[in-house]
Amino acid sequence: METPSSTRDRLIETARELFRSQGYNATGLKQVLAKAEVNAGSLYYFFKSKEDLLLAVLDRYVELLRPAVLDPAFEQTADPIERVFAVLGVYREYLSKTGCTLGCPIGNLALEVDARLVVRERIALNFNNWCRGIRECLDAAGDRVPPDLDRQALSEFVLTVMEGGVMQARAHRSLEPFDRSVAMLRDYFNRLLAAGPPERSDADRAPPPPG
Amino acid sequence: METPSSTRDRLIETARELFRSQGYNATGLKQVLAKAEVNAGSLYYFFKSKEDLLLAVLDRYVELLRPAVLDPAFEQTADPIERVFAVLGVYREYLSKTGCTLGCPIGNLALEVDARLVVRERIALNFNNWCRGIRECLDAAGDRVPPDLDRQALSEFVLTVMEGGVMQARAHRSLEPFDRSVAMLRDYFNRLLAAGPPERSDADRAPPPPG
DNA sequence: GTCTATATATTGATAGAC
DNA sequence: GTCTATCAATATATAGAC
Fold it and tell me: Is the separation of the CB atoms in B202 and B180 below 8 Å?
């Protein structure tokens, strides 16, 4: 067990940023090394290959899901259903802040580095954890969600809409396709869920959801 | 205006296949040349750069939309709404035939070669034409589609579900995430559309969601 | 239009001193 | 753990004969 190395972290963070903005294959290790101010020898001390570095980046995304995606979304509202759409709002922010150039980094990698088994498993893990976060919201919504509704399928559907919406937003360099798709999902939720208001407990005293 | 060159076509088709299965950046021109049995000099006689070849590939996809996607789907059924799902069935076939390794080639490129303006425009054109094909179905459905419903948004939503479903199917190497997302979309359509006579077809392979 | 040969840069990765 | 030097392979692209 090595003591945490700031050099290793710098490599992962730099690679994460470059893979996200340029893609995996379009990013050379030379560029990673220059930006991280690390020598080639050090990189291969920590990672046995470029793919190994990618695996570390994907592990980092697993770690970041809660603090960087779910927590910021969940603190916006206590209503479980609104939380689902707050998660989608996080990705809207990504798009908005970057002029619709950056979307979901996992989605990029999912379509680009399809080949190797280990990598794909790590991508699937990221998707699974993301869906689990959504499913927790659906479970927390209690009887507002029809008991016979497939929560797993619905949480995957939320991911589907996010990824598909992000893709079109980037292709058109416009938030509108994303917003329209999310609005459709919202409409579906409205038709799907019991119209009753959420049960409010004393611990559940958050500002009401917008809209 | 040059007379149609089989060499040029061979380059485009070979690049199309390799870009689709390996990605744009992961495919070297050397590999394209070897597979197409063409010399480098010939490639640069027809195309001024690798990106120029990509543009030709994207133009080819524009040409292929009707004959390779819409027509085969539309000939499966005359019902306009069933045709929408038949289009999704075409992509399910792509996934199924390739063990969930190949999905939508435009989606791959949309997330990978995000950079250059001309390329992005060509990708957006492919998406627009695809959505137009869906919108024609919605229009053909007449008063089964509520008149105040945004058909543009709904056609984009169908693309969203296709791309998001394909992405998860490839990540998990399983048709199930795709099927579940399409089933959700079907359920949404059922709730959305006037309860007309949508004859069920064999195109529906996945079990319908509860509700 | 096709061919060979080549230019230049960068790729991922390694060796071995410190 | 870090450094420099370097490997062999490949990248995209070009020149010029045929």
Answer: no
**Number of separate domains in chain B:** 2
Rounded distance, CA A17 to CA A87, Å?
A: 21
B210 in any annotated domain: no
Chain A residue numbers with beta carbons less than 8 Å from the beta carbon of B168 are: 127, 156, 159-160, 163
Residue B176 belongs to domain with CATH number: 1.10.357.10
Angle at B152 between CA B146 and CA B154, to 5 degrees: 60
Contact yes or no for B61/B110 (Cβ under 8 A):
no
Q: Are residues A112 and A177 in the same domain?
A: yes
Structure confidence by residue, pLDDT tens digits, B154-185: 999 999 999 999 999 999 999 999 999 999 99
Same domain? For A122 and A175 the reply is yes
pLDDT at residue B210 in the model: 53
Residues of chain A with Cβ-Cβ distance to B156 below 8 Å are: 168, 177, 180-181
pLDDT band (50, 70, 90) for residue A4: low
Kindly state whether residue B94 falls inside one of the protein's structural domains.
yes
- Evaluate whether residue B13 is within a structural domain: yes
Question: Are A4 and A107 found together in one domain?
Answer: no
Nearest nucleotide to the CA of B31, by C1', is D10
Q: Is the pLDDT of residue A209 over 50?
A: no
Using one digit for the tens of pLDDT, what is the confidence trace for B54-113? 999 999 999 999 999 999 999 999 999 999 999 999 999 999 999 999 999 999 999 999
Find which of B126, B168, B178 to mutate to test the A interface (most A CBs within 10 Å of its CB): B168
A130 and A82 in a common domain: yes
Q: Is the pTM of this model over 0.70?
A: yes
- By the 10 Å C-beta count (0-12 exposed, 13-18 middle, 19+ buried), A158 is classed as buried
Q: Does B207 contact A at CB distance below 8 Å?
A: no
Which residues fall within 8 angstroms of residue B1, CB to CB, at 6 or more apart?
none
Question: Is residue B111 in some structural domain?
Answer: yes
Residues spanned by the domain of A14? 1-47
Token pair for B188:
């949404």
pLDDT of residue A195: 57
Residue B207 structure tokens: 């079990």
A78 in the same domain as A147: yes
Q: What pLDDT sits at residue A210?
A: 42
| Confidence (pLDDT) at B116 | 79
On chain A, the residues whose CB falls within 8 A of the CB of B120 are 171, 173
Q: Is A168 on the interface with B (CB under 8 A)?
A: yes
